[in-house]
Amino acid sequence: MELLEVLSNIDKGLSDTLKATEMTLSVPEKHKRGELPVRTDGKKSILDYSGPRGCARIIQEEKKITLACTNLTADEAGDEDFTDAAVTGLDLSSCDDRDIKYIVNEFRETLEKHFGKKTMQKRSKASMPKPISKSAAKNGIAAYDANTLGSRFASLFPELREAYHANVEKYGEFLAAEFFENQGGNKAVADTLRGRDQAKIKKMINLFNEIYEDGTNETQSLLCVTILGSLGNDQEMLEKAGELMSDALKKEVLYINKYLNSGLGRGKLNKLKNPPPYKPKKNKTKRRSTSPLGM
Question: Quick one: pLDDT at residue 272?
Fold first, then answer.
């Protein structure tokens, strides 16, 4: 079976699910009518879909086919924001209708999981703050805030997506320190750096580089101190991350980790984590003098 036929059959098989999840096939302006809008990127053949709650992408490469998803909209998402959500083998030389049916069923379940009505209902409980778009940040219209970092981080780590939404729902806004320190964000960073998935490490550090370069001062501090400062001066993790960090981010992160693990730094961290109990100030009143001269 030819590649275009395979992709066309998959697209047709997903039509009902795409309609239900409000996803539409992205078609370039000058594309010839009636032809499937497959684009190539190196050895990859790609179909793009977009909707109000995110984007999906079917990627065929060598002997596999992948459905990648992101919760960012088409205007916000870059290639690095897509996370592989379903991957299966595809050998074009032996592909038949049964293989197409299997792929369609797997992709259908994945689309429902990411963009279906049940997921939508859960998210509608809280009004999700809108991330700053890449174009706005690059053009100087706005700077990346903590919510943008959290939203894009959750897209990179789908297992934390519900924690991100629960955070916003509980507090009415995104509390970044709570998410990264207590809801698994920092653990995901450390686990990734300790692992062997170089592609995932690269995506994560590239995200951090981008946010640091065009982020607010508060977001830069969150990234360097709260997130990457939690690496505890672990040289193995810092070396892995440092190979991919921008010069500006690397310099700041190495300095902060060294400081936070010094005697003075540990003392300040301990005070921040265990502040002394609050004692209200006593109102001091002057004794009224009995002398007519105030003596």
Answer: 44
Question: Does residue 218 sit in helix, strand or coil?
Answer: helix
Assign 58 to helix, strand or coil.
Answer: strand
pLDDT at residue 270, as a whole number: 52
- Other CB atoms within a 10 A radius of the CB of residue 68 amount to 20
> Which distant-in-sequence residues (6+ apart) come within 8 Å of 56 by Cβ?
23, 48, 49, 50, 67, 68, 69, 111, 114, 115
Q: CA 185, CA 221: separation in Å to the nearest integer?
A: 16
Q: Tokens representing 73?
A: 């909209």
Residues in the chain: 295
Our CA angle for 57, 81, 58, nearest 5°, is: 10
Sign, CA torsion 225/230/260/277: positive
Cβ neighbours around 144 below 10 Å, total: 24
Within 139-231, residue ranges assigned H as helices are 146-156, 161-171, 176-182, 185-194, 198-213, 217-221
**Is residue 40 a contact partner of residue 59, using CB atoms and an 8 Å limit?**
no
Walk along the chain (295 residues) in steps of 10 and give the mean pLDDT of each run.
91 93 86 84 91 90 91 80 87 90 92 73 59 87 93 90 86 89 92 91 94 93 90 87 92 85 56 48 48 42
- 39 forms beta bridges with 46
Task: Please check whether residue 219 is in contact with residue 146, taking contact to mean a CB–CB distance below 8 angstroms.
Answer: yes
DSSP string for 71-100 = SS-TTT--GGG-EEEEEEE--TTT--HHHH
Contact 57, 47 (CB under 8 A): yes
Give how far the C-alpha of residue 20 lies from the chain's centroid of Cα atoms, to the nearest Å. 25
Q: For residues 3 and 92, is the Cβ–Cβ distance under 8 A?
A: yes
Q: Please, what is the angle between helix 97-115 and helix 3-13, to 10°?
A: 50
